Amino acid sequence: MSAIKKFSPEFLIKLTYSLIIFTIVSRLLPHAYNFTSVGALSLFAGATLATRVAWLVPCFALLITDAIAGFYNLTVMLFVYAGFILCALLGGVTLSRKKGFLRLTVSAVLAAIIFYLISNFGMWLSGLNYPMTLNGLVECYLQGLPYLKVSLYADVIYSYFLFGIYALVVLNTPPLDDQIRPQINIRQ
Asked: Which of 10, 38, 64, 178 is deepest in the core (most CB within 10 A)?
């Protein structure tokens, strides 16, 4: 069980809202293309919240910002959302029990790659920019490589930030009376 799951329901609700607001702000403020916190947020939500809630956090953040900034092709949108849902599930599998620098870094890199593979497949499947051929699919993935590079940086940097804040909160917040303070090992 994740350390955060041992805190009060009120704390978890505040954490969830804070994560969504943080991601909305990071998407709406001027930023380098694809340099947002959504991938890291997805990992973090998966690692710290129950699965039934974790996948909703990036979806709500995306839905709100898409409503403000503008919706786009439905096929592409569905694959973008699916990519981030998979990142949340990845966070639950790789980071919910053990957190460490190497584990976090590898998970952030995997999240960026998963999102790249899923979202670019959706872009190709939409038929907007690439022919529906194997060559078109390859071209779509090749054209997406610069965005993958930016996503890798964003996911790693934002993951360090989110999990760093998480470590500070866990270490400085007393657990519920009947539970033991979770241990964080930053050397794994």
From this structure: 38
Which residue bears the tokens 């954490």?
15
20, 60 contact by CB (below 8 A): yes
| Location of structure tokens 């293309």 | 33
**Domain span at residue 138?**
4-172
Specify the range with the lowest mean pLDDT, choosing from 8-17, 40-49, 110-119, 145-154.
Answer: 8-17
Domain count of the chain? Answer: 1
CATH of the domain at 105: 1.10.1760.20
Nearest in space to 36 (alpha carbons), one of 120, 154, 115, 119: 154
For 72-118, the pLDDT digits (tens) are 999 999 999 999 999 999 999 999 888 899 999 999 999 999 999 99
Q: What is the pLDDT of residues 133-174, one digit of tens each?
A: 999 999 999 999 999 999 999 999 999 999 998 888 777 776
How many CA atoms within 13 Å lie on the side-chain side of 160?
Answer: 9
